[in-house]
Sequence to fold (217 residues):
Amino acid sequence: MNIHLSNGCFRFSVNHKSWFEASFCKSLGATIEFPSEWHEDGLGSIHIAFFFFQVFIHFPWFRVYEDHYQCSGPTFGLIIKDNSFGMGFNPALWVYYGNSDGSTKNSKLKIIYGPWDWGYAKVSKDVGDKSSHDYKYTLNSGEVQHIVATIQEQYREWRRFWIPWKMSVKSIYVDFSDEIGEKTGSWKGGVFGCSYNMKKGESPYETLKRMEKEEKF
Fold:
């Protein structure tokens, strides 16, 4: 039996299988997901979200469904969750109604956007030069992975569909020299790159160091 608390997430596990998780969120609703080959533990999951708090209750199931590289099993339910891309709370309704096969045509997920939704970036560009820095990631086991992270500052400008209102977002794109994270070495593979939003007044390097402390893969 193991109880783990990290970055606001509470996890209870037995024999390396996680049976209960709780964390903070910005969502409302409930879904049930049945296990696919993507789930190494073979467990399904009931997800209940109530505004700023969510729980995941995992359960065994008699069947494991085929994975189509969609990183989830058959899922059913409704949930209103943040679709803000780091730009404040911007909720959308996500409707799950089956097992997608990884293609857009046969997706079993419908996202219903509100009139407040932001459109795609109207301006997107790289800013400044790339730079490389040492980066370390601590696994749940305590093992530390040491790699090199190459970062590039990026600027994007978003606009709402229905009113002349725009918002700009600065972030860094991070390219790792090798895979990192809990799935490193598994058939799923670790993480090779990601984006992370910058805070006002931060340099790209300071954002990377904050990400090193906060982000879990």
Notes: The chain has a mean pLDDT of 82.
